[in-house]
Amino acid sequence: MNTVLGLDSAGKTAGVALVRSGALVYEAVLSTGLTHSETLLPLCRDALAAAGLGPDDVDAYAVAAGPGSFTGLRIGLATVKGLALAGKKPCAGVSTLEALCWGVPVWGNVLCALDARRGEVYWAAFRVAQGPAGTQVQRLYEDQSGPAAALGTVLDKLQGPVTLLGDGAALVAAAFPARALRLGPVHFRTGRAAGVCFAALAAGPGAFVPAERLAPLYHRLSQAQRERAARLGLSPEQV
User: Fold this and answer.
1) 17-75: pLDDT as tens digits
2) Is residue 137 within 8 Å of 101, Cβ to Cβ?
3) Residue 233 has what pLDDT?
4) What does the alpha-carbon distance between residue 146 and residue 167 come to, in Å, rounded to a whole number?
5) Domains and CATH numbers, the chain
6) What is the Cα 75 distance to its own chain's centre?
7) Distance of alpha carbon 112 from the chain centroid
8) What's 21's DSSP letter?
9) What's this model's pTM, rounded to 2 decimal places?
10) Which stretches of the chain are assigned E, i.e. beta strand?
């Protein structure tokens, strides 16, 4: 996959990046309050124009597939599916949380957290190394969701300092004020489309599939589904 166009619309920001021959060629992050349905395609157009490329020059697409905003994820996946189908190109869906590790200069123990509302976060933990061979990301915990205040046991098990990334980082830090947690810079806590590209490439050729196989990774029921389950007295498995 020589040239990969990546999209991130899992949170409040919209991002697009171009990676060619393993190097970042272009990246843009937009936070204007406009919906992702208004911004993603223009961002893709501008990225290709700035790099002097056309759609035929893109070998594959990558997208943050979740967890994250249900609406944002659907818009991102629909955009990538449309582009991939039109060009008959493969695409890869990657963990929004893992992509955070690939998009910023961080190392050591990293806990990535996204605001899931009502005091809960989507989270996962990784160990990141930076060296002559480039970035290496080792997953320590799978993507999951739960109250930010319930992450004490996880933090206890992570050896050494812990860096928090994601728009839920402040929630975790606030839940454990006595711990020496490192907060990544604010502008590095949002999703980065470059990280989406690098995470997809690191996963290898097998991560790239036909567009019709691309699927979101929600990791929990939507609010409407949770409210329906509560009304009917159903468990999450029964919804």
Assistant:
1) 999 999 999 999 998 877 899 999 999 999 999 999 999 999 999 999 999 999 999 99
2) yes
3) 54
4) 15
5) 3-96+191-229 (3.30.420.40), 105-187 (3.30.420.40)
6) 14
7) 10
8) T
9) 0.90
10) 3-8, 14-20, 23-30, 60-66, 91-95, 108-115, 120-131, 134-147, 162-165, 181-183
